[in-house]
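4.2 Preliminary Data

To establish feasibility before requesting continued support, the project team ran the inverse folding procedure on a target of 168 residues. The structure was first converted into the token representation described in Section 3, and no sequence information of any kind was made available to the design step. The complete token record follows.
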């Protein structure tokens, strides 16, 4: 019989000498891969957040520009519809209104405001031709102010922020 001491045995020390560095390298590589994947996810999240902030800021600036232009156009329309102004003042206000109608309003108006502007423009022509009266003109100016108010409320910064939150 053979002596158990002479029997071939499995040498764990040799196996661990080779396996330990391999396991260590595998652990390091998995850790590096997880870190890189996490960093990529963080970069994508930061980029998306920056894009969303830029979009909200752009919409906010557009809303502020719209607010300023709508305020100016309703003031001009109000001067036109004011019954106490002279015909010369009304003609001057109508020229300013037409300049805004063909100018800055084109950049910011929405369809209801555009339609109200067109109705005032047509009413001005009718008024100058004697086919309309001051009350009808005032009605059109009021409709324009209401269309501007609705447009501003629909695109307000709080509505934009809520819209941005719904997209996430």
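Position-by-position output of the design step:
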């Amino acid at each position: 019989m053979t002596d158990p001491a002479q029997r071939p045995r499995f040498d764990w020390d040799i196996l661990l000498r080779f396996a330990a560095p391999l396991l260590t390298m595998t652990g390091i590589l998995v850790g590096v891969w997880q870190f890189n994947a996490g960093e990529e996810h963080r970069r994508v999240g930061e980029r998306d957040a920056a894009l969303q902030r830029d979009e909200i800021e752009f919409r906010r600036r557009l809303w502020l520009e719209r607010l300023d232009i709508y305020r100016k156009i309703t003031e001009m329309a109000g001067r036109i519809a004011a019954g106490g102004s002279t015909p010369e003042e009304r003609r001057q206000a109508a020229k300013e209104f037409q300049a805004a109608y063909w100018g800055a309003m084109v950049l910011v108006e929405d369809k209801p405001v555009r339609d109200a502007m067109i109705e005032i423009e047509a009413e001005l022509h009718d008024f100058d031709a004697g086919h309309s009266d001051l009350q009808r003109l005032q009605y059109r100016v009021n409709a324009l102010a209401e269309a501007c108010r609705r447009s501003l409320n629909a695109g307000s910064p709080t509505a934009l922020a809520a819209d941005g939150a719904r997209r996430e």
